[in-house]
Amino acid sequence: MKGEKISDLELYFRNNNEKLIHKWNHYFDIYEHHFSRFRDKEIILLEIGVSQGGSLQMWKNYFGDRAKIYGIDIDPRCKGLEEKNIKIFIGSQSDRKFLRNVKNSIPQIDILIDDGGHTMRQQIVSYEELFEHIKEDGVYLCEDLHTSYWLNWGGGYKRRNTFIEYSKRFIDYLNAYHSTQNTLKVNSFTKSVDSIHYYDSVIVIEKRKKKPPFHEKTGTASFDNFSPKKTLPQKVFKKMKFISFTVINKILRFFRLPGFQTPRGG
Prior knowledge:
Number of helices: 10
Order of helices and strands: HHEHEEHEHEHHEEHHH
Strand order of the largest sheet: 3-2-1-4-5-7-6
Helix content: 25-40%
Largest sheet: 7 strands, mixed
Strand content: 15-25%
Shape: elongated
């Protein structure tokens, strides 16, 4: 659109006459939003999926000379794309042993970008092996999630074991401090993740060391708290006293049925 500001990353992409870069047009705003705070700093970036090497050069240009850029690709020819501040590991992103060797060979990661083979196993294995190696204020980004809906990549709407379906559990992990069920307990994800962002074909996870949340009150109450005893007819309230809403809701919760709510006003 005329007059709309273009990010430095997109500007580099539009003027690129060097190594091939292949990106969806809406990705650049996502990159800018989550990556801009790392510019001109001593960072470690790992991108899975080197392809023709153009994106590694784009990151090097964007983040500056203090950034160390690492790439992973299964094509041995990619090793020849190494240059100053760019190192490339050759292997499969679905090979756990290989990923563990990479993890042991590089410092903790500030930015991890999964732009590899985009199959369900590749994305899940890469997340499981590398997410904990991201720094406590780092960023994980997995792109091209539309393959979770593409048949030949193992995808399909609500199909089991797609990366989209796999990632939906992250939402529960993020909120686990508020769970009272044994099936959802606080884990390392809960303690280390600040936010999850879903975009068209992209998920971004922003890490930040997190303590259990708490709430506070300030100010003066305008009126007494709502009480069913004060607002409901006495006959209704007397019947309600013999009903254990907690027990009812536990039963409904077990069968994953909608809850039965006590009157609270609204």
